[in-house]
Amino acid sequence: MTTTDSFLRLPEVLAIIPVSRATWYEGIKNGRFPAQVKLGPRVSLWRRSDIEQLVASISASTVATPN
After folding, report:
1. Pick from 34, 28, 38: which is nearest to 57 by CA?
2. Pairing mode, if any, of strands 7-8 and 43-47?
3. Is 7 left (phi over 0), alpha (psi -120 to 50) or beta?
4. C-alpha to C-alpha distance for 12 and 52, rounded to whole angstroms
5. What backbone torsions phi and psi does residue 46 show, to the nearest 5 degrees?
6. 26-58: per-residue pLDDT in tens?
7. CB-based burial of residue 36 (10 Å sphere; 0-12 exposed, 13-18 middle, 19+ buried)?
8. In a 10 Å sphere around its CB, with 0-12 CB exposed, 13-18 middle and 19+ buried, how is residue 1 labelled?
């Protein structure tokens, strides 16, 4: 099975996951957020599927944890 995955730039990722750039990169360092794919020395992208999985896991933990 082959699937094509699109890529997102950081502003697109931060529009989906509303955190600051500093928080995002700290989350990558800590393993909380998915790491970027480096296409060049100044080009970093994130797989859309990785971001969708992150959103799904956040949604699942929010539903599982009542206030």
Report:
1. 34
2. antiparallel
3. beta
4. 12
5. -120, 140
6. 999 999 999 999 999 999 999 999 999 999 998
7. buried
8. exposed
- For residue 25, is pLDDT > 60? yes
Tell me if residue 52 falls in helix, strand or coil: helix
Nearest-5° angle of CA 17, CA 19, CA 24?
90
Instruction: Compute the distance between CA of residue 58 and CA of residue 52 in angstroms, rounded to an integer.
Output: 10
Q: Residue ranges of the domains in the chain?
A: 7-64
* DSSP H stretches of helix in the chain: 10-16, 21-30, 48-64
